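Bench notes, bay 3.
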Amino acid sequence: MRGAPQEKLIKDLNPVIRGWANYYRTVVSSRVYHECDNIVYYQLVQWTKWRHPDKSGAWRSRKYWRQIGNQKWVFAASETMTIRKHGMTHILSPYAKVRGKASPYDGNLLYWSQRLKNHPLLRGKLAKLLQKQQGKCRWCELTFREGDVMEIDHSDGNHANDDPSNLFAFHRHCHDERQAKPREEWKYAAGINHK
């Protein structure tokens, strides 16, 4: 694109830069993005030298690079038409590593229900409730631990109503404690709102 005007060059390069950067945003790539931005800068310098071989570097800099806001040395045809930088792409946080020698079949259902959407050994209501409640009991607000006995409770007392908003996971002893109290006191415990 040596003969193309600056606007056309920016228009054609921006989708390529955006696509490449989006493809690699799920891995730790900020250092690589910085290197890519440097390479693009040097390629643009070479492009300007080819287009204006008889002009000075200062003249080419004034013609093609601008200061926009706090950013200096932005390759831009106008305030709105600028070359996209790889570093503008937000990097998604990398996936958390699996702890030690953990396996979906090791019996730690709580860990895997929070980590996986579909645990091979824990499917259905309890897995969804553990995810919704972020692994915490709705009565005592303590995190479930491996080996805890968990029970599903219907907040309105109607066992035919399996609507997800009506279901909560409790420790067995918390469930027993809750059931021992009059229903009027349920709404004041652990912030559970009943209508």
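Next record in the batch:
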Amino acid sequence: MTPSPAGRRFPKGEGGFSLVEMLVALAILAVLAAVAVPYSEAVVKRDKETELRLDLREMREAIDRFHEDWQNQKLTSLGEDVSRDGYPKNLGVLVRGLAGATAGDPPLKYLRRVPENPFGDPSVPPDQQWALRGYRDAPDSRTWGGRDVYDVYCPGDGTAMDGSPYRDW
């Protein structure tokens, strides 16, 4: 007879867990894992969608501030980085900044960096992970005219948790 942890004695062969008890425990763990994995995938996707919304808002606000400064003549309309319509010619202009209209002013910068697309390819530079629309492009255009950056959106055919395509955000 072997002593049990509680001090009781069991006949030989009756201590420990049976095969059925072990299988039941494993089945319970498998069910819990089957529930937890899709939930964690949904949490990761929701976090990426939140990041995408914030990144799009940040870039669009920077474009709007740039255009507003151009309208208020805080930026010189001369130069290769500003279109005739007063929008930046690429996303890099928002990071590099432009000299103000008055000589000696420090450059006006609108973004610290171009954010990475959470659904983009990390091996591609961040400013190339986004799809662009120009001021003269159609509002639903999927091709960029190349004159200026009026809007930015997420390229591709990804679909959000609410069923809307990311490219329509």
